[in-house]
Fis family transcriptional regulator (Acinetobacter qingfengensis), 358 residues
Amino acid sequence: MRQDIITLPEITQRSYSHKATAQVFNDPKSKKLLEYIQKIAPSEASVLIHGETGTGKELVARKIHEYSHRQNKPFIAVNCGAFSENLVESELFGHEKGAFTGALSSNAGWFEAANGGTLLLDEIGDLSRQVQVKLLRVLQEREVVRLGSRKSIPIDVRVLTATNVNLEQAIIAEQFREDLYYRLNVVTLDIKPLRERRGDILPLALHFIDKYHEQLGYSKASFSEEAKIKLNEYWWPGNIRELENMIHHALLISSNGVIHAENLPFTKCTQNPKPNDNNAEKKTRELHTDPKLKEVFENLFKKNHGHVYSKFEEELLKVAYQYCQQNQVKTAELLGLSRNVIRSRLIELGELIVNKRL
């Protein structure tokens, strides 16, 4: 039942990562995704992978690489949100000795390191527009120029990208380049959250039991029927990574080789409405027909003719920021944008003061 599980290489630092470390294709939706991957992988098309945090986007990218003609070449995954604005160009494109303070030697960037293989740019929405311009040029010209150099270096890399934000919204907000989006979005893969592919939950849970049994010497365990029901009913806001952490915890406190429902530390927060929830649909219809909301929009149109969208965007961001108690990460999640986008717009609007060192 678990023959289609794929896992990340064992790296110690991943223990505290938000990344999913395993992916399975047991649910009918996942099987369809795997079939689609097998079709598009042999091509050289750029692929944009979209999904919530912890759904296994990097693992899907590795599966694409595995089924491609580049399978025996390097696969490198880079988190674009992990680098500071000053270092991201050097990390991606490389630099020459003396290119900037601290550049004591020449170094190849990730594009050169992945030459001949596949490069995954994770959290692509976190790149600044300045870096986006340079990335677009690299994709068009198929060559990189290291910082501090005028010499171009040819590259042969298949670029895959991943994001948990809506890039189309980022384009409207002028935080992501439209031409780069269409360059990256030849093929789109939408990774469903774990709550929408429940046939994967138990196989993944059993895999994590095996994993910690082998690595840490925990007793081999199984699930009670009540625990299985609870696993399938839970909505998994943290997706696969949350499931792994939960199984790890359950193994620590379970006894007699059985994991019971009370051994599973489910998050006590409001569950997302189900797609077929009649109350949710009713609320959605009421929102669209709310006379007060209609009046607000009409007043906005009258007072801000020609500047409606920019004014609406400003007020929406300010209200969302205050609603989230001035937490940038929560604001980004609420609006479906990246934290870097939220941060830069808040600075522009004077809602966030940045202390700059001289």
Q: What stands out?
A: Residues 41-192 form a domain with the Rossmann fold fold (CATH 3.40.50.300).
